[in-house]
């Protein structure tokens, strides 16, 4: 990390400000070359101070800016950092970045600032990942979960587990060196108990994976039903604004539409599907195919029925797609006189009566959506932590090694074998926080970041 890196850290486009971030051993020298102010040179400025001046070169100013100097080690990356707040918009930001690149910096790779923060010990890996989750979070609950991870809650839990494992390991290792003194049966029973308790703690963590996935990716929800029951109208009612085209002609929703909705803090990805029926037109056939495909890969089905009409065979054939999914029956058009009688087979499925036209019942539907998908788990789980897929994989292999160690210990296997398995468990759990990581893992994580972060 002897190179100095620079990037525009704000989004492209017109805005009040744009921030160019520079980090590395040459950051201050670089700033000395391009920044002019009455108060002297950046290398002479105190750490964590802000200064008004101009950036430019050869007496040609590019922009008037505020320059912030932050010296190592108390910075985001742990290195010397200079942040230049210039005027927003493409030209001032690009020209300022170009000056940095001509004066000793190279363009930062995606996530490189955060990667340096990790490599310099400013953040562990769960916190680095949380930075990205925080940037991408779209609902309040997702935001809170990411913030908790950034504050180190997951790290604290994982590190506590590592510490317990290290202590257990030390016990077994001590007896490899002094084989003549075997571990007393009491201590041995205690150690076995501790291993089991750690497996339990890891299993608790693993159970938060689903919540974590939902908060990061959203719940894929297909709105299905025969034509004209009010699927598009329902989507609009849930979104609270006009999106899909609503029309009284059956089968006119030509394609699937995916929309994001924040319902009670939970991210939902709502897919409006074209009416599932015997389609004739080509475009419509495509729509039907897509609607079946999305019904297949979704986790939740909102099966919409027209309560002002009788139950039909088309409704019945859609009900055949219910298997393996969370289903909510939405009985729409309750503002009209009821004609619908539900068949026996649908009686056990949660149902909500709504009118997409008047908005009646939409609140109850939102409540039901939240309840049926995550219940009260999210934000209320006693752990207050959610893990991602990478963490889950590492935790699963930790559990596997510890279960092996536990079985060996129960059958009185040699300490060498147990020690080896506990070491493997330590390595696996260490992957979560980044104590044991390969360059591959790091590359994979940070490549998903944006440039400038
Ligand atoms: P889709 O084919 O299932 O997407 O159905 P649409 O949302 O396009 O609605 C079909 C027709 O039903 C339109 O004329 C809507 O205005 C009407 N509609 C939708 N919801 C309601 C409702 O709650 N009450 C009444 N009376 N009409 C509705």
Features:
about 20% strand, alpha/beta, about 450 residues, seven-stranded mixed beta sheet, six-stranded mixed beta sheet, 15 helices, binds guanosine-5'-diphosphate
Give an overview in words.
This protein is an alpha/beta fold and 453 residues long. The chain is 45% helix and 18% strand. The protein contains 15 helices and 13 strands. It has helices at residues 27-34, 90-102, 112-119, 125-136, 140-150, 153-177, 185-206, 209-217, 231-239, 282-297, 313-319, 362-374, 389-410, 415-433, 439-446, and strands at residues 4-8, 17-23, 35-36, 49-57, 60-70, 81-87, 105-107, 219-224, 257-263, 266-272, 300-306, 326-332, 351-353. The strands form two sheets. A seven-stranded mixed β-sheet has the order 3-4-5-6-2-1-7. A six-stranded mixed β-sheet has the order 9-10-8-11-12-13, sandwiched between helices. Helix 7 packs antiparallel against helix 13. The radius of gyration is 29 Å and the shape is flat. The two termini are 16 Å apart. The relative contact order is 0.12. The structure holds guanosine-5'-diphosphate.
Helix % is: 40-55%
* Main structural class: alpha/beta
| Beta-strand content | 15-25%
| Number of helices, counting only DSSP H or I runs of 4 residues or more | 15
Q: What string gives the helices and strands in order?
A: EEHEEEEHEHHHHHHEHEEHEHEEHHHH
3D shape: flat
């Amino acid at each position: 990390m002897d190179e100095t890196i620079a990037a525009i850290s704000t989004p492209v486009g017109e805005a009040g400000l744009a921030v160019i971030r520079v980090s590395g051993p040459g950051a201050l020298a670089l700033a000395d070359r391009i920044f002019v102010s009455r108060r002297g040179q950046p290398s002479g400025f105190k750490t964590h101070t802000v200064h008004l001046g101009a950036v430019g070169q050869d007496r040609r100013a590019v922009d008037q800016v505020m320059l912030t100097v932050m010296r190592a080690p108390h910075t985001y990356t742990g290195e010397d950092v200079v942040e230049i707040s210039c005027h927003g918009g493409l030209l001032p930001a690009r020209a300022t970045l170009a000056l940095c690149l001509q004066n000793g910096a190279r363009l930062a790779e995606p996530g490189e600032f955060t990667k340096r923060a990790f490599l310099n010990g400013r953040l562990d890996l769960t916190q680095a990942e949380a930075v990205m989750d925080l940037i991408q979070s779209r609902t309040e609950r997702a935001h809170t979960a990411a913030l908790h991870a950034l504050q180190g809650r997951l790290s604290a839990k994982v590190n506590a587990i590592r510490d317990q494992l290290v202590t257990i390991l030390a016990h077994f290792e001590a007896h490899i060196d002094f084989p003549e003194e075997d571990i007393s049966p009491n201590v041995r029973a205690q150690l076995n108990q501790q291993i089991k308790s750690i497996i339990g703690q890891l299993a608790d963590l693993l159970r938060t994976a689903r919540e974590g996935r939902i908060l990061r990716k959203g719940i894929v929800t297909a709105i299905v039903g025969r034509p004209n029951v009010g699927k598009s109208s329902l989507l609009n009612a849930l979104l609270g604004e006009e999106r899909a085209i609503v029309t009284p002609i059956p089968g006119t929703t030509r394609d699937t539409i995916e929309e994001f909705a924040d319902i009670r803090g939970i991210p939902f990805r709502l897919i409006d599907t074209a009416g599932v029926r015997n389609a004739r037109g080509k475009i419509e056939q495509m729509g039907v195919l897509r609607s079946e495909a999305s019904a297949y890969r979704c986790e939740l089905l909102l099966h919409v029925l027209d309560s002002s009409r009788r139950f039909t065979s088309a409704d019945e054939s859609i009900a055949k797609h219910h298997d393996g999914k969370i289903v909510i029956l939405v009985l729409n058009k309750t503002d009209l006189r009821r004609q619908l009688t539900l068949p026996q087979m649908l009686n056990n499925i949660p149902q909500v009566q709504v009118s997409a036209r008047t908005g009646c019942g939409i609140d109850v539907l939102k409540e039901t959506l939240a309840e049926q998908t995550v219940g009260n788990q999210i934000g209320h789980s006693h752990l207050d932590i959610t893990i991602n897929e990478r963490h889950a994989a590492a935790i699963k292999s930790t559990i596997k090694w510890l279960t092996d160690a536990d079985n060996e210990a129960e059958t009185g296997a040699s300490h060498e074998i147990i020690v080896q398995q506990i070491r493997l468990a330590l390595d696996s759990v260490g992957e979560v926080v980044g104590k044991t990581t390969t360059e591959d893992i790091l590359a994979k994580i940070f490549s998903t970041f944006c440039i400038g972060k």
